[in-house]
Sequence to fold (176 residues):
Amino acid sequence: PARVSIMPVISAALLYRIVRSVPNIHALRLRQLNITPMVPRNVVGVPRISVDHVEYDKCHSDVMTTFTFLALFHLEHLDFEPLFEDADIAHPCADWPPLEVEYLCVDPGTPQPVVAFKALQHVVPPRMLKSFRYPSTAIQQVPPPVRTFLRDVGQNIVDLDLSPCEYLVDHAPRRR
Fold:
């Protein structure tokens, strides 16, 4: 559904318990859910679940809930297209849990790509990523800070797919 109001509502804590109850899960597809915050939000000491592939597609949530939930997993590959309640994250929380993700694809359909990339900068540790993909062909009014994100966390990337390359300039003047 296109409207948030008709998305099924589920708490991140319940979703985590469901996933924990299924042994040997390899792939998890979360699509068009309204995910409510976890209680408590602190996930320190909670054992991470290893998952090969997670699709987080058009799930509606705030930034903190999204990354607190995703931090409960060790992710081989994350396809990421969130619907954030937050319009901006000018003051990210210093204690956001770090993600463990090796291959990241940020989908071009993300309605607030700048917020997504700013949040990712705070939760993806340097040298964590091996692969990064941003397959956007859409022109955004405000280009997301892809170059800054890659500078901060992309030191270990061996596979990079960016399209179009205009996203690498981050508001910098073009050279001729």
Notes: Residues 59 and 160 are 25 Å apart (CA to CA). The chain is about 20% helix and 30% strand. The mean pLDDT is 81.
